[in-house]
Amino acid sequence: MKKDFFTSSFDPKVNKNQPLAERMRPCSLNDVVGQRHLIGEDGLLSRMVAAGSIGSLIFWGPPGTGKTTVARLLALETNFAFEQVSAIFTGVSELKKIFEVAQRRFMSGDKTLLFVDEIHRFNRAQQDSFLPVMENGTVILIGATTENPSFELNAALLSRARVLTFFSHDHESLGMLLKRAEEVEGKLLPLDDGARDVLIGMSDGDARVALTLAEEVWSVARSGEILDAGALQKVIQRRAPIYDKGRDGHYNLISALHKSVRGSDPDAALYYLARMLDAGEDPLYIGRRLVRMAVEDVGLADPQALVICNAAKDAYDYLGSPEGELALAQACLYVATAPKSNATYLAYKAARRCAQKNGSLPPPKHILNAPTKLMKEEGYGEGYCYDHDEPDAFSGQEYFPEKLGRQSYYKPVERGFEREIVKRLEWWKQLRKKRKNQP
């Protein structure tokens, strides 16, 4: 028998004027789309429900992945009282009132599941207020966050709650969700296969967005009209992908871009560049990061990389969007395809460690200027050799502090222009040895 999603999966008493995403909230964990690693037959949450015992949890994942829905259903299927608050609109005084009600339930043998949306927005003191009621069992806390709990939540709170990851919906699960929406609405989406795929892509893994876009399609399509991909993009403004410039999305994508460049994958680098620009990242920030990649990961293996990346940043500053974005793309491709060397980066780190370890050692006097008579009498500048007057423009004299002795920080690689530098350093090494042995 074919399953009737409207009568068995969704609440038939829901107000028909509510948004489709709200009307389609499932009434059972079995009907939740996606997150099978948690609510599938052997999923952790399914096992908790079967055992009738739920511990405090942190649901971590992008918007529209079912965190709120799953929390509600956990309370429903375990017969816990359900309380829901948002960290944006709730203070400690409101929490205390909820704790008092939960305490009265607890004393009468009932349990309370408290769902806190965007729990990462609570400050340290507010987060600490949960600890006593979690420890004595007054409430079972489920916090939802789109941000990395390791950075946003107190260690004390994390030690008392298990973190469960919710993943963005894939193409298949969003496709299934749209089919359910068609059953609930009693009509098909007026889209061809290509447009349907585009709509799923626009949703960016967010079920709520997918259903909102579906509603919009039904509202704008003319009777009998079937929209193709081009028509769909005209009637629906493309949604910007999930991206918060101050949080994980920002750092994850810049990390992906940097590592793609370092790994000499120009296509992946260009993809992440496009993702960031498409999501509204500051192009000049990307330009600055490309300059950093040029010096950190290419260095003297291709000195032109720094010139090109700096020029691309300036070109964007001059042209603006969208023309200037092409300059950033060109620089991105250049550094991704350039020979790689981190020898400059490593050499500078080694030099800093040495400088910090050895303190303020004075340079040898022969390389110091002597603008006064007293300084000349002290031996400043005495014995200095002007290298341009020497054979091969190389004197071989020592420049390090006498108490430190000769050091070696820079070790160029056998790639790109650094191959030539290796030859030069070896040549100077031999000349230095030769000069040293001369009477």
In short, what is this structure?
With 439 residues, the chain is mainly α. The protein contains 22 helices and five strands. 52% of the residues lie in helices and 6% in strands.
- The CATH superfamily of the largest domain appears as P-loop containing nucleotide triphosphate hydrolases
| C-alpha-based Rg, rounded | 32 Å
Distance between the termini: 103 Å
Question: pLDDT under 50 segments (min length 5)?
Answer: 1-9
Number of helices, counting only DSSP H or I runs of 4 residues or more? 22
Structural class: mainly alpha
List SSEs in N-to-C order. Answer: HHHHEHEHEHHEHHEHHHHHHHHHHHH
Mean pLDDT: 88
| CATH architecture assignment name of the largest domain | 3-Layer(aba) Sandwich
Strand segment tally: 5
Domain unit count: 4
Share of β-strand residues: 5-15%
Largest sheet: 5 strands, parallel
Share of residues in helices? 40-55%
| Spatial order of the strands forming the largest sheet | 2-3-4-1-5
Overall geometric form: elongated
CATH topology of the largest domain: Rossmann fold
The CATH class of the largest domain turns out to be Alpha Beta
Function: DNA-dependent ATPase that plays important roles in cellular responses to stalled DNA replication processes.
Pfam families: AAA, AAA_assoc_2, MgsA_C
InterPro entries: AAA+_ATPase, AAA_assoc_2, AAA_ATPase_RarA/MGS1/WRNIP1, ATPase_AAA_core, DNA_pol3_clamp-load_cplx_C, MgsA_C, P-loop_NTPase
Domain AAA+ ATPase: 53-171
What would you say this structure looks like, in words?
Helix 18 (304-319) runs antiparallel to helix 19 (323-337). The chain has four domains: 35-165, Rossmann fold; 171-235, Orthogonal Bundle (Helicase, Ruva Protein, domain 3); 248-337, Up-down Bundle (Zinc Finger, Delta Prime, domain 3), CATH 1.20.272; 358-437. It is elongated and about 95 Å long. It starts with a helix and ends with a helix. The protein has helices spanning 5-8, 20-23, 36-39, 44-51, 67-78, 92-107, 124-128, 131-135, 149-152, 155-158, 171-185, 193-203, 207-220, 229-235, 248-262, 266-278, 283-298, 304-319, 323-337, 343-358, 373-377, 418-437, and strands at residues 57-60, 81-86, 112-117, 140-145, 162-165. It has 439 residues and is mainly α. Strand 2, helix 6 (92-107) and strand 3 (112-117) form a beta-alpha-beta unit. It contains 22 helices and five strands. The longest helix is centred in the C-terminal third of the chain and has 20 residues, at 418-437. Strands 2-3-4-1-5 form a five-stranded parallel β-sheet.
